[in-house]
Specification:
Helix content is 73%, strand content 0%. It has 433 residues and is mainly alpha-helical. It has a domain of 189 residues: Tetratricopeptide repeat domain (Serine Threonine Protein Phosphatase 5, Tetratricopeptide repeat).
């Protein structure tokens, strides 16, 4: 997509950057100098941030009233318990699940609900005890086996599987235990063969499909791993680990939009998964979806207000939006975004160089080489010893067929950081050419 030309009478991106940088490093609260730093931008325009966090369709009272009307309906009680869990109201969730268990002591689902809650709380010993009871009642209990197979938790889950396998040598737990051991020892082909046989015998258990995906991924068979994870999700859409594995797989492939969507599924299932929220935002950021990245990270800060990485990356996203809005003539939106960057972290020296590095790469990928060089030069002025800036500058020069300047930039990068494999790799390519 062609870039919108900047009229000659307008301030350039770098001039704007200088103004903003001067402001952020010399002032803290002066509204007068803020107006000076952003005099090229229009008056602030308030804009509500749209949160992607899923909104509950029903209130807590709605769930409670439904449960009161059907006190012996296990499914209705489970919905109330899950609602409490989503809000980390553990005591009320315990009351629900213990009441269900008292009413249905021979129902493996009741034991699973209690165990799953304990696992989400991090109380693995209690979770293990409940899972053991569920499998004692039904050695093929799908929900319990799928949780244990997915790898959530630690050695406690493995111990439950091994005990169930010993008690029921012909059941699915025995096969899951053997498959996991094969994967852990690197016998991937044997593990895959066992998953195929197990699926024929137990076609409703998504845990076998998930483990098949893990084995394929460890073998480097990425396409097959992806297919297995997708099948596992189709069988059990609430399998967080399958969504996570798929998200990381896409991320490692550089398919950042797809990675973000997978991590979004995890967030939908578990609002409190801060790591998934971070990866959701990082995936959007790497995909140059600055607005979506900002929204994801703003939501994350509600759950982890001092997240160290987000306190650096979120201002970068807002600052990039500010520069881009201004470049495209949307100065009011630019000023709003800049204000948001400062509201998250007013120590601009910690994040401004990173923002300009990202802009340098972004402009280069769009073929805007002059803007790319200007952005990298800004990084060097802000942080003279930044080896990454020289590496990026060299790549831009190379794309412009300025090979001598490119080599000089990479050599400078290696002087600053002798361990820079990227700069060394580009120099090798340059010498071969």
């Amino acid at each position: 997509m062609a870039a919108t030309p900047v009229p000659k009478k307008e301030i350039s991106v770098i001039q704007l950057t200088g103004e903003l940088f001067d402001y952020t490093n010399k002032m803290k609260t002066s509204s007068r100098r803020l107006a000076h730093a952003t005099r090229y931008l229009a008056a602030p325009q308030k804009k509500a941030v749209a949160h992607i966090e899923s909104k509950a369709k029903y209130t807590t009272r709605d769930y409670e009233e439904a449960a009161e009307k059907a006190p012996y309906d296990v499914r209705t009680q489970r919905q109330l318990g899950m609602h409490y869990e989503q809000n980390h109201d553990w005591e009320n969730a315990k009351d629900v699940y213990m009441r269900v268990l008292a009413q249905n002591p021979l129902n493996p689902d009741a034991h699973f609900y209690l165990g799953n809650m304990y696992q989400n709380m991090g109380e693995m010993v209690k979770a293990r005890q409940s899972y053991e009871e569920a499998l004692a009642l039904d050695p093929s209990h799908r929900a319990t086996l799928d949780i244990l197979a997915s790898g959530r938790g630690t050695s406690e889950n493995t111990a439950v599987l091994e005990q169930s396998a010993a008690n029921n040598p012909d059941g699915p737990a025995q096969k899951l235990t053997l498959i996991k051991k094969k994967i852990n020892t690197g016998d991937y082909e044997d593990a895959i063969e066992l998953t195929v046989l197990a699926q024929e015998q137990f076609p409703d258990h998504g845990g076998f499909v998930f483990l098949q995906g893990r084995a394929y991924e460890d073998m480097g068979e990425i396409a097959r791993a992806k297919s297995s994870y997708q099948r596992s999700i189709k069988m059990d859409p609430r399998n967080e680990n399958a969504h996570l594995s798929l998200g990381h797989l896409y991320f490692n492939q550089g398919k950042y939009v797809y990675a973000a969507l997978s991590f979004s599924d995890v967030v939908y299932l578990n609002n409190y998964d801060v790591d998934a929220r971070y990866m959701q935002g990082l995936s959007y950021f790497n995909a140059n979806e600055w607005g979506r990245a900002a929204t994801a990270w703003e939501d994350l800060l509600h759950y982890s207000p001092q997240h160290p990485l987000v306190k650096i990356l979120l201002p970068q996203a807002y600052y990039i939006l500010a520069v881009e809005y201004n470049r495209l003539g949307k100065s009011s939106l630019g000023r709003t975004s800049f204000s948001k960057a400062l509201s998250v972290n007013n120590h601009s020296r910690s994040w401004l160089p990173g923002a300009m590095r990202t802009l340098g790469k972004y402009y280069r990928e769009k073929g805007m080489h002059k803007e790319s060089l200007a952005a990298y030069q800004e990084v060097v002025e802000l942080k003279p010893m930044d080896a990454e800036a020289y590496t990026g500058m060299g790549i831009t020069y190379w794309k412009m067929n300025e090979h001598q300047l490119a080599k000089a930039a990479w050599q400078r990068s290696l002087e600053l950081n002798p361990d820079s494999n990227e700069a060394r790799g580009w120099l090798m390519i340059a010498h071969q050419g």
